[in-house]
C-alpha cells in the first residue's frame, strides 16, 4: 500500500497540522481542507484512499460531506467529533462513516485507527478484484486461491498457512515493493513486529519452496534497504 493519499478536513489549523505531521511520518500523502466545501472540491479532483472529516465545519459540515461522498464512493471515512453525544447522533443518522473519534484525541490512537481502516479497505479491495479469481498463474507457478494450494509445473508444493498468506499478499500486487512492517501488518495482522526476523524467515522458507535457485530468486526479490517484491507477469485466464 504505497502512495496512500489522505484528505483531512477540519476548520482548526492546529488539528489539521497535527494530523498531517504524524500521518506524513507514516509515509502517507496528505491534503488539507479548511471547510467542507473545499474538501468536496478536492475530492472531485483527486483519488483518495481515506478521508478524515471534522463534524462541525463552515460552508458544508462533516455530515453533509460524508453523505455526498457516500453517494459516489466507498472510500473509508473517519469522523472527528467534539463529544460522545455527537457520535450517538452520527450513528443514528446512518451517514456511512467507517469510524468516529472524539476530541481531544490521542494522535497515536488516530494513526493506529487510520492504519486499521486502510488495512480493511485494502483487504476489501482484494476481495472485490484479485480474490474473485479462483487461481492465478505466473509461468509454471499456479496459486489456487480457493483451496489454498500451490503447484509448480503441475506438482503440488506444501505451504504453511502463513507462507501461503505471505505469497498471496505479495502476488496481489506484482512489482509492488513492501517493507517488512507492511508485510507483517497485512499478513500477521499487527502493526508491531515482535521479532524482526519473522518476515525474513518466512521469505527464506518460501523461496526454498518456489525458487529454482533460492540464492538468486526470480519471483520473490529483495529490494535492498526497503523490502521485498514479487516479480512476474500474470498469465491471462
TrEMBL record:
List of residues that carry 4-aspartylphosphate: 54
DNA-binding region: 133-232
One Pfam family, short name: Response_reg
Main localization category: cytoplasm
PROSITE patterns per UniProt: OMPR_PHOB, RESPONSE_REGULATORY
Localization of this protein: Cytoplasm
Designated name of the protein: DNA-binding response regulator
Lineage: Bacteria, Bacillati, Bacillota, Bacilli, Bacillales
